[in-house]
Amino acid sequence: MNLVFITAFGGAIGAWFRFLIGTFISKRFSRLPVAMILVNVIGAFGLGVYTGSYLNSDLVVNESMLHHFIGIGFFGAFTTFSTFSVEAVQLLQQKKTKSALIYMVSTIFGSILLFSFGVLCVI
Amino acid sequence: MKLSVAVLLGGASGAVLRLFVNTQMTFSQFPFATFTENISGSFLLGCLTGIAFNSNLPEWVRVGIGTGFCGGFTTMSTFAADSITLWQTSSTATIIYIGSSVAGGLTAAMIGIMVGLKLSFIWRKVS
Questions:
Q1: Interval B36-58: pLDDT, tens
Q2: A88–B13: do the CB atoms touch at under 8 Å?
Q3: In whole angstroms, what is the distance from residue B11 CA to residue A77 CA?
């Protein structure tokens, strides 16, 4: 029960941070959904740093409060896949094929690379 | 203020539902749980986008369900983590995971948008 509550708490804060960054940045860029690229790659980097640091510790990861709060709750909700899918489809529907490709490649590979980079930074 | 409350509540419930799906789907090394969450969340956000396109949905509903719930339910950071973990056992499975998540997410979002548009038209006729 505690783990559910702590996940909800992390998720609420994560989603709220994404909302704030989204409203702050989206007014400044129009051609590419820059806000979601940034949120997703930064969130992936953060999860990487967190993952790298628990790899070195002897915490029982999957059952810990910290893991539910930071890993599943906060970074899980801070980053998003649904907005990525919908924004990519909208760019394609507007025939902005090049922007759509840049958006998809930078989000997917950016997230994977920055997650690995985050892990490597701390181990 | 109203929007922030909607996002906080949506994000909390999205993350809890994701935790629930995670605990239900631990039968394989392939990250089926994250895959299911990302695809179904993309579909739901697509529906919402389609409905909002053609009707004046209150902003707190759009933000609460879209940014909060769908955003909190789906995840890119765990997707990235899954990809790296899977890469250590099978590069083929990793490529399948990335390809199917992206293609599936976009297809689900597109179908969702079409369903949402249909719904909003029906809605208009009825009301």
A1: 999 999 999 999 999 998 888 89
A2: no
A3: 6
Q: What are the pLDDT tens digits along chain A (123 aa)?
A: 799 999 999 999 999 999 999 999 976 677 789 999 999 999 999 999 999 988 777 665 567 899 999 999 999 999 999 999 999 999 999 999 999 999 999 999 999 999 999 999 998
Q: Does B1 touch chain A (CB under 8 A)?
A: no
Whether residue A108 and residue B98 make contact (CB cut-off 8 A), yes or no, is yes
What burial class does residue A99 get, using C-beta atoms within 10 Å of its C-beta: 0-12 exposed, 13-18 middle, 19+ buried? middle
Q: How do the domains of chain A map onto residue ranges?
A: 2-122
Q: Return the domain boundaries, chain B.
A: 1-126
Q: How far is B83 from chain A (nearest CA, A)?
A: 7
CB B86 within 8 A of CB B97: yes
